[in-house]
Amino acid sequence: MAQTDSLGQFEQLVLTAILSLREDAYGVSIHAQVEKLAQPRAVSLGAVYVTLDRLEDKGMVSSWLTDPTPERGGRAKRCYRLEAVGERVLQESAVTAKRIWDVIAEVWGKEWARQWGKKWRKEAG
Amino acid sequence: MAQTDSLGQFEQLVLTAILSLREDAYGVSIHAQVEKLAQPRAVSLGAVYVTLDRLEDKGMVSSWLTDPTPERGGRAKRCYRLEAVGERVLQESAVTAKRIWDVIAEVWGKEWARQWGKKWRKEAG
DNA sequence: TTGATTTGTATTACTCTGTTGGAGAAATGG
DNA sequence: CCATTTCTCCAACAGAGTAATACAAATCAA
């Protein structure tokens, strides 16, 4: 019902993955990107597809089918891109995510924050 | 069930609020802090209490009753503090929050990110 | 001392999100 | 063809998010 509503944590991850994959955002690649963002937590493929469906229902993303590619098992993919609503809502919740980080980093100290920043960069290149 | 599980978005907000309030974390003050973090989104008081209950069930926070204070309407408060499990889980999900921010900031550009950082600091002091 | 006001806690009941597990379609390769 | 790979999608359940509302305990002021 509430169309302008806030995102759940997982929806946020999925939208972020789509954003960062740009032209190459489809089920499997989105799943891989989400796992990278959510590590060390595991994420099931089904969870991604269900969430994509719901985000499309809300008008936050749109999708279309591509042609098959000439590789083993290379069937048609359903590609996704962010719509205007999705951008706006993601923007909002990203700002909230940053606020959380800032507050926590302040309480637990700069040293702690720097450590986690490093670890993330090493693992994700 | 899953004790090491990940946090929902709202649980994360509530834990962060408790962390930043230190000695003065009780229902009403937590609610105020959560609204500050989640702005411009509105948050109901009931949502906070229900979430606090659930977090306590999971052992992430503990609570105790204080004595009434000598002010108008100053009845006994139920105060909260983070437990070890809560700290660990919050830490994890804070790192995820930062990853989301980093990815988005990279895609949408440094200029955009700087703007939001400024706005937040002004509003929250 | 009683009723209005302020501050605060708690519960109920519901919708929406998160997650698992598996079914099965469309491509290639021997 | 049959095995294998890549990929999409559904059903069903547990858990998180929210609104709405009831109620409890303190002060204030006449």
What proportion strand of chain A?
Answer: 5-15%
CATH fold title of chain A = Arc Repressor Mutant, subunit A
Termini of chain A, distance in Å? Answer: 40 Å
User: What is the count of structural domains of chain A?
Assistant: 1
Give the SSE string of chain A: HHHEEHH
Shape of chain A: globular
CATH superfamily name of chain A? Winged helix-like DNA-binding domain superfamily/Winged helix DNA-binding domain
Structural class of chain A: mainly alpha
Estimated radius of gyration of chain A? 16 Å
- Main interface by residue count: A-B, 35 and 36 residues
Describe this structure in words.
The structure is a homodimer of 125-residue chains. Chain A is built from five helices and two strands. The first copy, chain A, has helices at residues 9-21, 27-38, 45-57, 84-108, 110-124, and strands at 61-65, 78-82. In chain A, strands 1-2 form a two-stranded antiparallel sheet. In chain A, helix 1 (9-21) packs across helix 2 and helix 2 (27-38) packs across helix 3 (45-57). The N and C termini of chain A lie far apart (40 Å). In chain A, 32% of the residues are buried. Chain A binds chain B through residues 6-9, 12-13, 16, 19-20, 37-38, 41, 90-108, 116-117, 120, 124, and chain B through 6-9, 12-13, 16, 19-20, 37-38, 40-41, 90-108, 116-117, 120, 124. Chain A binds a DNA duplex (30 and 30 nucleotides) through helix 1 and helix 3.
